[in-house]
Structures are given as structure tokens and as C-alpha cells.
Amino acid sequence: MSAAADPLAVQRRLIAGLFIAAGLAHFVVPAFFEAIVPPWLPGWMPSPRALVYLSGVAELAGGLGVLVPAARGAAGWGLLTLLVAVFPANVFMWREAQASGAPTWWVAALTVRLPLQALLLWWVWRVVVRARR
């Protein structure tokens, strides 16, 4: 089966594209991501801007790593770790939207996003980590 017709290869390219786009967004609109860095992070953590850049680099590296067979396993584990690490920021963003009276559609989108994070974890596990061929 050609790589173009291989369903796992197609899904890996989709995952890679998603994380590469998200990683680039951290550098294009860092203020958006800075606003969702929870303020309760310990003082020893880097500044919110540095965390935004760090997570952007991690998403870029993970997305690119998914495309390289020799790096795929490490990239998959890195992306799983990243998804778990940024989940508190997603919860914080959702709670802030509710508290600030954000538009209903925005709160609804952020509400749907939370369980989608679990689906994304499963997808990366199944397509990148478990099926490393």
C-alpha cells in the first residue's frame, strides 16, 4: 500500500499539520496564548510569554517528529505529555470565559473543546505511539 493510501499515514499527516499549525500560532499571536496561562503557576516557572514560546516549540517539534519514522515514538510521547500539561490552561480559559460573560457560542466551543482533548490524546496514542510503523 502506498503511503498516500495508508490510513495511518494520512492520519499522522493530519496530526502533524494540527500541531505544526498550533505551534506556529504561538509565535504569530502569542498574546492570545499568554492570556490563558493560569496565574496560579508557581513563581519558579518561566514568564507566561516564555511558556507560550516553549509550548509552541514543543508543538512544532512534536508535529514534525510525527513525520519522521525514527522520531515518531518520542514525538508521540512528547505530544501526549504536552496535551496533559496544557489541559489546565484550557480549563482556565473555559472558566474565565464563563466568569467574564463571554458570548454563549464561545463558552460552548470551549466546553466542547475539553472532552475533545481526551479524544486528541487517544488519537495521538493510537496513530503515533501505538502504531509506529
Summed up, what is this model?
This protein has 133 residues and is mainly α. The protein contains 5 helices and no strands.
Topology, pairings included?
Blueprint (H helix, E strand, L loop, with lengths): L6 H22 L1 H5 L13 H19 L5 H28 L4 H27 L3
Specify the biggest β-sheet.
Answer: none
Shape by Cα distribution: globular
Quaternary state of this entry equals: single chain
Question: What is the number of helices?
Answer: 5
Strand content: under 5%
Structure overview:
With 133 residues, the protein is mainly alpha-helical. It has one domain (7-130). The chain contains 5 helices and no strands. The protein has helices at 7-28, 30-34, 48-66, 72-99, 104-130. Helix 1 crosses helix 5, helix 3 (48-66) crosses helix 4 (72-99) and helix 4 runs antiparallel to helix 5 (104-130). The protein starts with 6 loop residues before the first helix and ends with a helix.
Question: Which short descriptors sum up this protein?
Answer:
about 130 residues, mainly alpha
